[in-house]
Amino acid sequence: MTREKLEEKTTTPVVVTRRKLDGPVAKIAMVVAILGAIYHLYNAGFGSQSELQLRSMHWAFISFLAYLMYPARHRSPRHRVTVLDGVLAVAAAACGLYIYFTWMDIAERMGFTIPRDIVFGVIEIFLILEVCRRVVGMPLMILAAAFIAYGFTGPYMPLVFAHKGYGIDAIVRVLYISTDGIFGLPIAISASYVVLFILFGAFLQASGGGEQPTRLQSSWWKSSRVNCPCRTRSDTTSRVG
């Protein structure tokens, strides 16, 4: 590789996909993030909510902020939120809050769906596919959509891939109103542990505490080299020689 090509490769601008919000929307995002942090800290210390409530509220906070922070396309505005993004953010939060406030009714129905569950569930599935496309990328969204479609197309699949197929109510029951789909183990770990580590790391970085271990290690290393007997003998030998 020539020097010109190397310089061109190293100076290629990096495409930033996340928005840098300002104005009222930035304040709204900040308030929602603070409320989410307070909720998770309170739940970790004093909360006694059900697993489905914790996971659905975690999704409500995260999905709302994701639709505000990540644009739909590379050409979308980087400093403001479009009307569509605002609608999707509110819809994603509403789908999470629906589970949060109706989890007891869902438990009493023992997983049987009603038309309202199916409406919210279908919207939720499409919203999580879209937020996956924005944050992670198209390949993972296509993979997830393919597996969801496989649940419907089982009777038309060949040989070992064939199965009886599932209706929309069964898909929504597993993916939306249970702890086996969207609100499964990964989001449980994120809501219970990962978010706490992120908050702790953000606090250390903002307060400057994250630099203290590095400074202590650097000062210890310098003092150990100054006071090292072998270094003193080596310096004396070099001077005598």
Give an overview in words.
This protein is an all-alpha fold and 241 residues long. It has one domain. It is 70% helix and 0% strand. The chain contains 10 helices and no strands. The longest helix is centred in the middle third of the chain and has 26 residues, at 83-108. The chain is globular and about 70 Å long. It starts with a helix and ends with a helix. Residues 10-15 have low confidence and may be disordered.
The gist of it:
Helices cover about 70% and strands about 0% of the residues.
Secondary-structure blueprint:
Blueprint: H1 3-10, H2 24-45, H3 51-69, H4 83-108, H5 115-135, H6 138-152, H7 168-175, H8 185-207, H9 212-226, H10 229-240
Helix pairs in contact: 2-3, 2-8, 3-4, 3-8, 4-5, 5-6, 5-7
Overall radius of gyration = 26 Å
Strand content: under 5%
Secondary structure category: mainly alpha
- CA-based shape: globular
User: What does the average pLDDT come to?
Assistant: 84
Give the helix level as a range of percent: over 70%
Instruction: State the major sheet.
Output: none
Run of helices and strands: HHHHHHHHHH
Helical segment count: 10
Distance between the amino and carboxyl termini? 47 Å
The count of DSSP E runs of length 2 or more, i.e. the number of strands, is: 0
The domain tally reads 1
Give start-end ranges of low-pLDDT stretches. Answer: 10-15
Key structural traits:
mainly alpha
